[in-house]
Structures are given as structure tokens and as C-alpha cells.
Amino acid sequence: MEYSVHYQPGDGYLAWLQYRNPAAGGAGRYQEYQRIVAAGLDNTVLRTAADELVQGLKGITGLEISVSETIAASPSIIIGTFGADSVVDGFFSTEVSNAVQAEGYAIQTDNKTGSIVIGALTPAGVLYGVFHLLRIMGTGGSVRQLNILENPANQLRMINQWDNMDGSVERGYAGQSVFYENNMITGQLERIQDYARLLASTGINAITINNVNVHQTESRLLTDFLPDVARLAAIFRSYAIRLFLSINYASTMEIGGLETADPLDPDVREWWRMTAAAVYEAIPDFGGFLVKADSENRPGPFTYGRDHADGANMLAEALQPYGGIVIWRCFVYNCKQDWRDRSTDRARAAYDHFQPLDGRFMDNVILQIKNGPIDFQVREPVSPLLGAMPKTNQVIEFQIAQEYTGQQRHVCYLVPQWKEILDFDTQLQGKGTTVRRIVDGSVHGNPYSGFAAVSNIGNDSNWTGHLLAQANLYGYGRLAWNPGLSADAIAGEWITLTFGFASAHEPFQLLLRILMESWEIYESYTAPLGVGFMVNPDHHYGPNVDGYEYSMWGTYHFADCHGMGVDRTTATGTGYTSQYVQANMEQYESLDSCPDDLLLFFHHVPYTHVLHSGKTVIQHIYDTHFEGAERAYGLLSDWKLMKGQVDDRAYRHVEERLTEQAGHSKEWRDRINTYFLRKSGIPDQHGRTIY
Amino acid sequence: MEYSVHYQPGDGYLAWLQYRNPAAGGAGRYQEYQRIVAAGLDNTVLRTAADELVQGLKGITGLEISVSETIAASPSIIIGTFGADSVVDGFFSTEVSNAVQAEGYAIQTDNKTGSIVIGALTPAGVLYGVFHLLRIMGTGGSVRQLNILENPANQLRMINQWDNMDGSVERGYAGQSVFYENNMITGQLERIQDYARLLASTGINAITINNVNVHQTESRLLTDFLPDVARLAAIFRSYAIRLFLSINYASTMEIGGLETADPLDPDVREWWRMTAAAVYEAIPDFGGFLVKADSENRPGPFTYGRDHADGANMLAEALQPYGGIVIWRCFVYNCKQDWRDRSTDRARAAYDHFQPLDGRFMDNVILQIKNGPIDFQVREPVSPLLGAMPKTNQVIEFQIAQEYTGQQRHVCYLVPQWKEILDFDTQLQGKGTTVRRIVDGSVHGNPYSGFAAVSNIGNDSNWTGHLLAQANLYGYGRLAWNPGLSADAIAGEWITLTFGFASAHEPFQLLLRILMESWEIYESYTAPLGVGFMVNPDHHYGPNVDGYEYSMWGTYHFADCHGMGVDRTTATGTGYTSQYVQANMEQYESLDSCPDDLLLFFHHVPYTHVLHSGKTVIQHIYDTHFEGAERAYGLLSDWKLMKGQVDDRAYRHVEERLTEQAGHSKEWRDRINTYFLRKSGIPDQHGRTIY
């Protein structure tokens, strides 16, 4: 099988790096910049920065671009790191150059010559500065008086691939893996390089290249496949992205020939030290390990009566000499729960498991915490573990892949959801202790902090299956760099870069509306009021109200003929609310103050319970589902106005997906409404058809 | 992979053909019979009969047995077909020999010599007589004054294998196929011969060797694989079993290179004529074709605007010159139904499709009709199509494989169910028009009639997965021969033949109770009152009340907070009841007369509806589920008393399955009870724990 890496108009392969001529801002706008000045091009990242700039400018201006090492009088784009004899020397004030941090950059327009100068402390900073400048040009912005200083808010800006070596992608909705086929690392490296480009252009600086569920073949990435891994590391290195591996906690047994994986066993520790040494021999800037242990049937330290800190520290010790880190996932819960047991609450699990271990983890261990306590539902509260371990490095984990939000067959722009999560005030250190500030490290000042997220790409020609799902990948990177950006600003950037529409144009506004409303629409016709799931088991696509109701997965709605929801209060329920600080706990604990959209996550209420909206729960279900399906049809009608405005191939592709979504939203509407009409016996106030 | 065809004590491989010494009747009982007299042994079936008799007698008496062609004075067993110069000539009165029909036999003890004589019209009859005699000896019966005359009640006594050439078995619960592996017919023929023996010993005379869902590879059984098929036919021929093939209706397109499968197209007809000729060239006594067409996504004549009669007759015409028959399945319904559409009723489908075609089918076409209108549920009414087409050959189809009755992990002896079905009075020709008489051809006198059933065997060492499931295979064959046998008589035979217990022994009675109660027990903890399904989709194992409720498969319970069941009355429902004759229709139509165990099949009633038993529907559900799970535990306790009474390996095997059943019955109980408590809000009168 060969990847089709050749760009075809409208197939989405170039994504937001189209570099059209003329750009949205009009033809000829940037044509004075035909010369790039750069030095130090033996550095691979600087070389990439210069190449990207050449390629981007060529596309935007339609002109040939020259690269030189010396500054001339004509307007140029000058790029380089700060330091004696640098080409950017003297363009920036000390104040500015001192304010630029690692990975940050400054961009200024030189008044005298009109040249644009990009300076940074590191080659990575230069690369990000170049992509910033190209983004300005790609969206038609002015470059006359640039005076930009940017540092990334988050130190770790990571992507997790859930790719398996057989070529499948766990929870992948965009084709097969671009990394693997036939239990080997692919020889088709061009597509991987193009992916690295896409990621770097949004600011991503780390990637785990294999699924957190590490099977036997993948265990050998650490050993037998290391030369191939090194080849991938070189590609990502040239885009300033560090490569990590997900490891099998029981590798010592699986591939190491030992009979134990006890983290306190000297032979186990020695095996990991040797293995780490070999990895760093092959990949000197290797990032480290991502670990899913004692979770969903994966092996872990529990087998040996050890805890997560023992397990993580053992690995961290092996990586420490090389500056490597261990990222330990907190997605740990009892997945063999008895549905009859209403006292066990999966939502509590991450906090209960990890919070007591605060202070026990080494400095080069990071805990990776899913944004919510369950599993990437369309609506969940924020995980109470975030910020609750002041002495421990933490990163937040998002899922760009739309596992529970339409699987890239429905449009669901997730940046608004992520924004809400980041803006949530944990109040852990008083008001203003937002998740955003916890995650960026400014609250606790721990050595490591940041974002991780499950990728949504595969070998579909447009990367993400649904073309509009590219906005989530783009948005994740942008948000990881700067969580202060607004969801619509990010969407706007993506629209202009991808389709070329300026913000004043009707198609821009139309697309922006589609994206910005899509999450709310998806939520409205699926599981109501924060209750979650109601999906088909295993593949998680499509409605099935009782799909997980009598299962061992700990995800229930407890609907009966009187009411529904999960009582997670401290007064009468599972006590989950007590994992929040007092103020938040009290808000969730009380029916008076619990937000409507999380009501059924926290409370079991009668169908006749009246929401703050003034509607009963049952009427809310009917209304949102009728409206949601109607609005899903509206997305399709809206898109039809785009005909002729976008490439025909792209038009038809999105039309087909939106048609499926519209039909499928009706199935959701009818199954949910029928289920609750049958169960509650309460008719729709408006007498609409419920089967 | 090699089959383990070597008998190990207790592994169940010999099934009911153990031929123990001493037999249940006591050692030495049959030791005077050391000599067999038989002639015409160049006939393959007579050869088999003699061989089986030698082997059986050897096992039972522990002595060497001689075979000769001439009669001596010492007591012998004399076998042969009637006719001049036959060894049996003169032993039977003309009255007796005239009363023996094809496949029938007579057995008499000769007063003068004490010899036992088995005479028949055909070699097949001799073979069945031999197995009858061995059954008498195997169960310790007296042979002093035998005077037996048996003719099979049913002409066609068929087994359908649902085996695929990749080695899988559709709805198989006993390992892989014994016929195929790696898309080839297996070279391991010994096991197939042993299977033929088992079948012939119960009276089976026809087998279809491949799944009714015929995929591309299997289509080529008709052509490329014909030499291998002929080898299998030879094995079955020696046991008087005719071989049939399931065919792909669209073979002309799939493998014939034509662009159509239109039954009226001359090229299509010609292709089938040529193909049939080639098949009969290879297998002169080939039985014919079994066809699943226009059913569950299989191709059929509908594509060309033709009907089932057109399709079946086209094939029948091709087979007619050779005496072959077409067996056309009536399992035809819309499997893409919209669950919102309550007017479409899958139960009606077979009758609606086929009944109007009565008189249109050729004489060598047989319609194969599932016993019930839905699909082998634990409880269904009898299919109204049975007997409703007086001018058309019909056979009834049972499923020995326990697809919906515990999948050979739960014990469920199905003979009592089949007996109930056979005893059902359709009243089509007045009172006494039982299904049994329709199926045996005595009501309408059509050329063909009989039984077909889906096999329950695979390459598990005991053939059927659950050792006790052997009783269903045995019972099916015995019932097909003589539907007048009682379920407990058949169970008793099987128990004694398999385990050696005489009927007066405690273990016999215990096992008999386990078998005889097992269907009722299974029914009691699964879907209640004839409503059916409530199983997990696809694999059909384990409880899932809403598993098919919002699907396209047409199998719903319509439970809401008030009540449940399907209104199939003519007055207010789907009109299904009108497919029965007036008297039966009236019985089902009225709540007063509809039997409790079919109530929810025919009616939608409130949970508070009072059954004839005096209980409400909801209390019936709770009671039967609590009792059923308790009784399932009782089966296990009962079996534990068998320790030491049966081979230890067999003991442990059955104990393990019954343990699983007991645990799983609790899961059924809790999921059904919880579902209906939540839905109805009506508590258990006895206050037992419902979650």
C-alpha cells in the first residue's frame, strides 16, 4: 500500500498550510519579500525554519525566493537565534531578547529597511516564529509594523498517537495508521514528515508514536525496532518535536526474559536502566515513556503490591541520567465493576488512586490526567485531580479524536469545550485557580506542566476523515501554545488558512457558525444533562440508551420509571463531590446551584424535576432532541450554501458527512425520546411524534 | 490441525455408541450371539450394517464375532433384505414383509433356534434394524421374543450443517467445523465417518454439508470442489445418508460468469442444468440443493421481479432428471425494518410471502419452514405456514444448535419443546390436524415431507460442547424417525446408552430430571411469556433486554412504564393471528383464552394484567426469574451427586458448564428483574433483592 502524498485540490491534504497566491489579503501584498537571510543552517531546525519560510513565501507570493547569509538593503526576512554575530543581532532591544524564553520568539518590522526580523533563543523558537509570520500572511494580515513577542504558555505540548503496529488506530476515525503497516514501521516517511510539519506549525513539541495499549509487537519498539524509531525521531527532531514511546509496563516479562515486573526488583530496575541507555544511544534527545499501567487490564505495579509511585519512579530513575521523563496516565479505575454495586463510582477513581500519592513521585515524572473524571464525554465536570497534587507534575489530557463526539462523521468542534475546561476555576488556591493556570505550571511551579491529547489523524487523504475535524487538530495545537486564544479566533484562523475566506466574507461567517455551534448541537441530540454514554458498546458510535447500563464499565444512568441520574453527592450519594474544594463541592452538591448541564452527572432526579431553565427534565430531553436533530439538518442546509465557494471535491465530501450526521441525529432523537417516553410515561407537551 | 479421533474415557467422543461390556442389563446376557449371518455384503450399506453389528456385539459381549453367509443351528443374528435366496427368506410372514416399507425393518426372534433375524426391503432398512437391535442390547433389553416392525414416520430426516469452509460454524458452539479447514474440505475423513455413524444410528438419512449462507468459496463446492464433495458423499452413502449442498442462488454470477441470476433467463437455466449434470456425474445419488434466497441479505429471485416459485422451480427443473430435490427455506422477512414502524410484523412474513404461492411449486421442491414464525426462541407459537399450503411439499425446520437456548453452555434438552410443537393441533383439516401429521405427509399426501434441523456439532472432542447437548442430537434423530416417542423415553435411552445407568438407578433418575426440567428452567430465567429475544445482539448470548429493541431486525418487546408485549391480534394489532384457522385464531386473539406462556407474543398488556396462573405479569417475571436462577443452581447441586458415578473427566466437564450456567442465570435474573422494576416501578411482593 502506498500513501497518496500528492496533493490534489480539495482533498484536504495540505490542511491549513495551503499558502495560496493570492492570499486572502489580496495579490501582491507580500511580494517585496523575495529574500531570506538566515545563518546557522547546519542546525536541522533552523534549516527547517528557512525551508518552510521559502516554501510558504513562494506559495503566497508566487515568486522565487533566495536565501543568503548576509543582510542587504532590500526588504528581507531575517531569521536567527540571539547571540554574538547572529544575523538578528542588533535588531532587538535587550528588553525584548531577555523576555523571549526557550521556544519563544520575537518578530519585528525594521523601520529603516522594511525587513521582518524573527529572533529567538533557540532554533525551535525561530521555527515557531516563522510559522507565526506565515500565519499572518496566510490570513492576509499586515506586516508593516510587526512587534510581536510570544512565549508558549505550556511547556509540554504533546500529541499521543493511539496507533498500533498492525496498522490499526485505536479510536481512529480517519483510516489506518500513517506510522505502521504489517507490524513494521512504514517505509513511507514523507507522510510522517508532512504530519510533523502540520504539528510544528501549531506549536506541538512532543509526540508519542504508539498506542498507550502496548501489545507484544509494540513492546519491541524499545528494542528490536529502535533503528526505525530513530529514523522517525530524526524527522520529528527537524521540526523541534521530541519523540516519546508508550511502553508496556511489563516489558521485563514480555520481552526482557525476566519473570517479574516488580518495580522494586533489582533485575527489573537494571533491565530498564540498560534499555534506557540503549534508547538514548540511538536517540540522544529521546523524550521518555508514556505509561498506561493497572488500567483497563494493562499490567502494572499493583500485581506486586506496589503503587503507582513505585512503578513510575522506577522508570523515571532509568531515564533521569538522560533528561528523559515518565508520563504516567491517571486513567485508572475498576473496569470489572458489578453494575449491581451502586457504591463504587468510577468518577472517583483517579482522585482516590493518585491524590494520596502527592509528593511521592520523582521530579521527572508527570501525571497525565484526562480532562474529566470519566472518559471524554460530550459533557463532564472537570477532573478534581487537576491541581489537587501540588507537589506533583501534571498535564491535562484531551482527546482530539472524536470517540464520543461523533467519530469524525459528525462535526463537533471541540475547542469551545476545551476552553470551558481550561477556564474552570478549581479555587484550589482561592478564586482564579483556573485549570489553565494549573496546567501551565503557574500555580504550583512544578518542573513540568502542559497539555497532551489523543490525535485524530490517519491515512485518509485529508488526515482527519471529516475535513472539518482538522479544526480540532489545529485548535488543539494553538490552544496548547496559548490557552488565552478564543475558540472563535482559532476557528477563524483555521477557516481562512484552509479555505482562503477573509473574515468579512459570508462563507467565513457561515463556516464559523457551523463550527461554533457544532458541540452544542451534538450535545443536544445525544446523552442529556451530563449523564454521558448511551452509546453502542465497544465501538461507541450511535445511540443505545442501555448500552452500558448493565455492564462492568461503571458508566450508568440509572433511569427508572420515576427519574434518572447518578447521585454523586456527599450527603446521599457516592461522595464524589467531596473531591472538589468546598465552594465547588457545595455548588455541585445542591440541586439549587448545580448547573443544568451537569445535573444528571451529580444527581438522581425525577423526570418532573424543574431545571433552572424552567423546563422539566423530561421536557428538556424532548425539546433538546427535537431541536438538536433539526439543527443538525440546519448544518447541512448551511453547508449547501457553500457550493461553488469551496473546491467541489471538498464540498461533496463535507456534504456527505453532514448528510449522514443529519440522518443519524434523527436516529439519536427517536431512540432517546422513545426510550424516555416509554420509561417515564410522560408525553411531550408539544405533542410531537415519539415512537 | 489434527482431530483427536482417538477415544479417551469420558471425553464423550463415542457418545451414545459406547457398547459397554457389561451392558446395563448385566454381563453375559447376550453372549450366545457370537455369529452373524449376512449376505450381499458387496452392497456398501449392508457391509456397514454387518460391520456395525460386529463392532457393537464385540463391545457388548466382549467376545470375538464371526460373520458368515450361511445359516447354522446355533443362535445367530441374521440380517438381510427380503427377496428370493435371501438369508432372511422364510423367517417373516408375508404380512410382516409386506408391511415393511422402504427404510423400515422387522426384527424377530426365531423360536426354534433363538436366532435374531433382521429383515428389510432395503439395505438402509437393515442398517436401521441393526442399530435398533444394538440399542436394545445397549439398554439391557430382552431379545428372547422380539417381534418388531418399524417404519420411519418421516421420509426426509435431515441434518443441516451451518459449516463454512474457513472452518467456522455459524451458530456453532462446539468448536470448529469437522468438514472444513483453511477453505478446503478436510482430509481428516475419519471424524466425518464417525459423525455419519452417529447420525445413521438415530435414523438420519440426509445431510446438507455447508451453511445456508453460502459465501464465495462455498459456492465452488458445486464445481471446483466436486471431487472432494464426492468423497464425503461416499462416506455418507455407506451410512445410507444422502448428501445435499446449500447453494448460492446467485451462483450464475458468483462463479458462472453470467451477468444475471434471473430464474427465467435461458442462460441461467442452462447453467444450472449443466451444473446439475456435472454434480450427478460425480455423485449419482446426490440429494439436491438447500437454498436460502431473498433472506437476510442473501440474493434471490426478487432482484429480477420474480418470486420464490420461479426461483425454486428453475433449480428443480435442473435436478428433476436425476431425482434431485430443491429445499427452499421460508425464513424470509424484512431484516431492514424501521423499529419505529409498528405495523410491519416479522412474525407474519413467512406466511405472507409463501402461502399465496401454494400450487406454484414443482413436485420436487420442498419448502423448509422454521418451527416458529420468528427464530428458534425458547418459546414461540407454531408457524401458521405449516400445513397451510396443501399442494406444496413442506418440511419443518428445528434448530438443534442452542442459539437462543444457552448455546450449549446452559443445559437445555429441546425434545420436550419439539414434542409440544409436533403435538400442536393446527385444526387445518378439523381437529387432530397436528403438526406431526402435517409434517409426516399423512394429511396432504404430498410426495415429500419430513424434518430438517440445524446441527449442534463441531470438532470438540465430545461433538456438542456440552456433553448433555448430545441428547438433543440423539433426540432429534429419534423423533424424526418416530415423533410418537416421548421426550422422557428418548432421554432415558440416551442416558443408558451414554452412561450405562439402568432406569431404576438413582443416577438415571437424576439425569433424567436434569434433562426434563432444563427447558422450563432456561425459559424461566430468560425472556418471559413468549416475548422472545432480550439477548445481546449478534452473538445472542446473555441478557440484554433492549438489545434488539431499537434495531432493524423486527424483534421487539415494546416495554414501557405501563406494560409490554406485541399486539399481534387481528382486532387491534398486526393481524398475525388471522394466519391461523378460526379456532386457533380465536384462542390467541382473546386475553381470556391466550395461553400464559405465549401471552406477550400475542398481546401488549399492563404489568398488572393477571395471568391465568393468578399472578400479575410483573410478579410472574420476578417469581420465575428468582425461581429459575435458584433451579439453575439446583441443576448444579443435582449434578454434584453424580460424582463418582460417571467418569471423572465427564463429571468435571459438566460441572464446569453447570457452574457457568448457575452464575449466568443470576445475571439473567438480575438484569431482567432490575430492568422491569425500574421500568414498571412495581416492587416485588416478596421484597427480594432487585438492584
UniProtKB/TrEMBL annotation, chains A, B:
GO terms for biological process: glucuronoxylan catabolic process. Residues 139-463 form the Glycosyl hydrolase family 67 catalytic domain. One of its GO terms (cellular component) is extracellular region. The keyword Hydrolase applies. Residues 15-133 form the Alpha glucuronidase N-terminal domain. It is an enzyme of class 3 (hydrolase). Its EC number is 3.2.1.131. Transmembrane segments: none annotated. The active site is at E296 (proton donor), D375 (proton acceptor), E403 (proton acceptor). The keyword Hydrolase applies. It catalyses: Hydrolysis of (1->2)-alpha-D-(4-O-methyl)glucuronosyl links in the main chain of hardwood xylans. Gene3D superfamilies: Alpha-glucuronidase, C-terminal domain (3.90.1330.10), Chitobiase/beta-hexosaminidase domain 2-like (3.30.379.10), Glycosidases (3.20.20.80). Residues 464-688 form the Glycosyl hydrolase family 67 C-terminal domain. One of its GO terms (molecular function) is xylan alpha-1,2-glucuronosidase activity. Keywords: Carbohydrate metabolism, Glycosidase, Hydrolase, Polysaccharide degradation, Xylan degradation. PANTHER family: ALPHA-GLUCURONIDASE A. Belongs to the glycosyl hydrolase 67 family. Homodimer. This is Xylan alpha-1,2-glucuronidase. It comes from Paenibacillus typhae. The lineage of its organism: Bacteria, Bacillati, Bacillota, Bacilli, Bacillales.
